[in-house]
Specification:
Elements: H1 2-21, H2 23-40, E1 49-50, H3 70-120, H4 125-161, E2 165-166, H5 175-197, H6 213-237, E3 251-257, H7 262-277, E4 284-286, E5 296-303, E6 308-309, E7 312-313, E8 316-326, H8 330-334, E9 338-341, E10 355-359, H9 360-366, E11 376-379, E12 386-393, E13 410-414, E14 423-427, E15 443-445, E16 449-450, H10 451-457, H11 460-494, H12 496-504, H13 509-543, H14 558-581, H15 584-592
Parallel strand pairs: 8-13, 10-12
Antiparallel strand pairs: 1-2, 3-14, 3-15, 3-16, 4-14, 5-8, 5-11, 6-7, 9-12, 10-13, 11-12
């Protein structure tokens, strides 16, 4: 028992002394580990997030196996953004990992003298390794515990602010990153042993400079993440406007016929529109999601005419398109102009010949010479479902969440020819809300809502992910700032003999400081170049699922660039100023001790 306690004291006392003597570098490693864990742990939520704002309803058209509903589109959008957030969390963890390794190099050089002296007085390698392991374990434990506390707070805030639902709570999948961070801290704790092994006893601290692309990489990671977060925030807060001058003024209510028969629903919808026209000059009835630019995605067959695909003449094109059900006033209500032919009218009722209106892009890409009016299109599954194309309307950008995942082609059908199980009624904002219509027609009417509120609510998931990515970006910035500070100080410390000699031969202070500042500027420029290369690729990955997301905008990088450049410059000029403020002999003596 006495022998065990003696060995324990032999390990604990040196480890406690080392932690106290080199507390700054130990704190940097622990903070970096905590930031990495704080960034990665909340991503347990990504597999449990659910969001859909468009209600599923009975669809009156036979669908193909390739059908995708608006709910499917929005679920896939959540999955894609969660995957993007996981990638950004990994980038933040990478920035923290680089900080841990850079600081470990600095600790190895500083601890080399201590370990060399202990070896010279007879300390065994086993004792030295045990002391290093204990020291690293304390640092790793402190960092992981602090990171878990940070992650718990972040996760709680994210759960309470998510606009959808969280199914089943957080999931796993973060054990491996935590083990990686802990392993890096342990590896960094053992690095002084390796450093001291290749040095004389007592060792002479080497003068090799740090490889400067390391802080430049951290600089680029932090800059890309902050710019992407700013892009997402700007896209989420921008007013959702559809192409073609769509209006955001009006009142929307969900309506549901009480009859299950398609023919009876068509009669109920017609009566509803007739009753509403007695009260107002305009009333639009559409399938759920159409007012947000969202619809059901399925295959249509276009009677293209004399068209080719890949050099082969193909008279019929199979095209994935977004299906919308609309009434006679819909195009006027949302400000979507008819470019050729006519729109859907009141005569396109249940027993009338089947007609369709197509978007300009569908007409241009899949009809001969873009002349779609008068040609045919087959909608739904079956050989007898051919529709006459009676008009072409302008293309319309989706304003709903996930709309960017849908095809750019659209087809519009009459809601009276294909009455869905539920629809959206839009009336002008100046008219009274349609809350008394259930007494007029055999239709149940939901609670009215302003169309503007409906569209702005669609920005909530994007705003949520923007906050998450901004938070991860700032965690990466903090980790990178510590890493850049340590890297630049380590580099300048390696230059102290050179700086002392320059001072000894009469070099003025401003020239020495200018030399150091130029290298810090080189780190900044290299980081900007890497960010300018990687930033557009990251933005393009996000543009596929976020409506209205702009290309990588260098103007958004001004503020984070100034902050990161200041950190780099201060980290380099701090020790350099200390060096030029002392006599050359004192500088050389400090570096060699």
């Amino acid at each position: 028992m006495h022998r065990v306690s003696t060995r324990l004291v032999a390990l604990v006392a040196p480890a406690r002394w080392a932690l106290r003597q080199h507390r700054r570098s130990a704190a940097v490693v622990a903070i970096a580990a905590g930031l990495a864990v704080g960034a990665i742990l909340p991503l347990r939520l990504s597999g449990a997030l659910q969001y859909t704002s468009v209600r599923d309803t009975e669809w009156p058209i036979r669908s193909s196996p390739l059908l995708a509903t608006p709910s499917d589109t929005q679920r896939h959008a959540v999955t894609d953004l969660a995957a993007l957030a996981r990638g950004i969390a990994v980038a933040a963890m990478l920035a923290a990992a680089v900080t841990i390794l850079v600081t470990a190099v600095a600790r190895a050089r500083a601890r080399g003298v201590d370990i060399g002296i202990r070896r010279a007085v007879g300390a065994s390698r086993r004792v030295l390794a045990g002391t290093a392991m204990l020291e690293a374990a304390v640092i790793a434990g402190a960092g992981l515990i602090a990171g878990a506390a940070i992650a718990a707070v972040i996760e709680r805030v994210l759960v309470t602010t998510w606009p959808g639902t969280v199914a089943g709570g957080p999931t796993g999948g973060v054990l491996a990153p935590i083990l990686v961070i802990g392993g890096l801290v342990i590896l960094g704790g053992l690095m002084p042993l390796v450093h001291a092994r290749h040095r004389a006893a007592p060792p002479v601290v080497g003068d090799e400079p740090l490889w400067l692309p390391v802080p430049a990489t951290q600089f680029a990671i932090a800059l890309v993440l902050l710019v992407l977060a700013a892009q997402l925030a700007r896209a989420a807060t921008a007013p959702a406007q559809a192409a073609g001058g769509a209006s955001s003024v009006g009142t929307v209510a969900a309506v549901t016929p009480r009859s299950a028969s398609s023919a009876d629903r068509a009669i109920a919808y017609h009566a509803l529109l007739t009753a509403q026209h007695d009260r107002t000059s305009m009333a639009s009835l559409t399938s759920p999601g159409m007012l947000l630019g969202l619809g059901r995605v399925d295959i249509v067959i276009t009677d293209c005419g004399w068209c080719s695909q890949g050099g082969i003449m193909v008279p019929h094109h199979a095209v994935p398109v977004v299906h919308h059900l609309v009434s006679a006033d819909t195009f006027r209500a949302i400000g979507l102009p008819v470019l050729a032919g006519r729109g859907i009218t009141d005569v396109d009722a249940w027993e009338a010949p089947r007609v369709a209106v197509v978007s300009r892009r569908l007409a241009r890409d899949h009809f001969q010479d873009g002349q779609a009016v008068g040609r045919l299109i087959r909608v739904g599954r079956g050989t007898d479902e051919w529709y006459a194309v009676v008009g072409i309307v302008a293309d319309r950008a989706p304003s709903g969440f996930g709309g960017q995942r849908q095809p750019p082609h659209a087809v519009y059908l009459s809601v009276l020819q294909h009455p869905p199980g539920s629809a959206d009624l839009l009336v002008p904002a100046t008219d009274s809300p349609p809350r008394t219509l259930s007494a007029v027609a055999d239709v149940d009417v939901g609670r009215p809502e302003a169309l503007e509120d409906l569209r702005h609510r669609e920005s909530a998931p994007t705003e949520w992910f923007a906050r998450l990515i901004r938070l991860e970006g700032w965690l990466a910035v903090l980790a990178a700032a510590f890493g850049m500070f340590a890297a630049m100080r380590l580099w300048v410390t390696g230059l102290l003999p050179e700086l002392g000699l320059r001072r000894a031969v009469g070099a003025p202070r401003h020239r020495i400081l200018g030399h150091v500042a130029a290298r810090a500027l080189a780190v900044t420029c290299a980081g900007v170049v890497v960010a300018a290369w990687a930033g557009p690729m990251v933005s393009d990955a996000a543009r596929g699922v976020v409506a209205g997301l702009s290309s990588w905008d260098p103007r958004l990088a001004a503020q984070p660039l100034a902050m990161l450049a200041s950190v780099t410059l201060l980290a380099a000029l701090g020790p350099a100023w200390g060096a030029v403020s002392r006599t050359p002999a004192a500088t050389l003596e400090q570096r060699g001790s």
